[in-house]
Amino acid sequence: MKLHFTYWLLAGFLLLADIARAQQVTLTPEQIKTLTAAWTGERFPDGRPKVPDALLQRLKKISIEEAWGILRNKGYQNQFEGEWMLLRNEQVMTGRVVTAQYMPMRPDMDQLIKDKGKAEGRIGGTNSWPIDVLSNGDVYVADSYGKVVDGTLIGDNLGNSIYAKSRNGVIFYGSVRDMEGLEEIDGFTAWVKGYDPSYIQQMMLAGINVPIRIGRATVLPGDVVLAKKGGVIFIPAHLLEEVVLNAEFIALRDQFGHQRLREGKYTPGQIDTQWTDAIKKDFLQWLDTQGNKLPMSRPELDKFMQNRTW
């Protein structure tokens, strides 16, 4: 019995030692690849999916409702969060997500994270560490559990650094300070839950590029974000092309239908129900007249329509 107890006691000590050694500030590239295994394209050195810049630009023209509907039909029903305070109401932001998780301060864990960060060569306050990993086209997305007073993750200094590295803005389930200074950063924008003049206190960084929760949404590193006045939607990287092409195709159908209704060629009942073969043929002929007005290349469209059920 004593030998048995000693065995389990030793095993417990070894397990704790392994946990301490394995404590990471960020997930490893292999762990991120495992999380995002459905993505088969190019990746960043940190393991995050690297979706094409061209798709990010096209995504800006997609509505939140269109993207949400497509994701919902694919089984992704928890990717949207609304009710934000916006730095600039008129701006639209798309980009590749870098995540950060913050928690209420716990000294022992905080020290463990800081020691690990120091060993990895990280410098400055822990709230600057996620900024250091940003690259062009990234969006810094942080869960700071809705803390507003004493929960301000950045002010104008860090805001300038974020924009210099990413040419994008931030999405914080929390708050910022120096709102006037942030507004002066040309091109920078933010979706946050509040503003406060206080400094960050009694908070700690728990991880970079780890899965996080943003309100109603589950967000993974390498997701693609579409942020508009109405809210924010997080798109798994492997579904981005499908979301964009589907939404663009629906927009073309609507454009065709509206034009034909104005011309009086069809009735609303004909356009709003399953199209007849004659209307489908008319639509395909109409597409041939659009030329460079199409949002996608014609080969992309033809390939997409091969699997389309209308």
UniProtKB/TrEMBL annotation:
Coiled coil region boundaries: none
Q: Does the keyword Signal apply?
A: yes
Range of residues in the leader sequence: 1-22
User: Is this entry keyworded GTP-binding?
Assistant: no
What are the alphabetically sorted keywords of the record? Magnesium, Metal-binding, Signal
Question: Which annotated residues bind substrate?
Answer: G155, D156, N157, L158, R177
The cofactors it requires, by name, are: Mg(2+)
Cross-referenced InterPro entries: RraA/RraA-like, RraA/RraA-like_sf
The residues that the entry says bind Mg(2+) are D178
Q: Which Pfam families match?
A: RraA-like (PF03737)
Which domain of life does the protein's organism represent?
Bacteria
- What are the protein's GO molecular function terms? metal ion binding
Question: Per its record, how is this protein called by name?
Answer: Regulator of RNase E activity RraA
Q: Origin organism of this chain?
A: Chitinophaga rupis
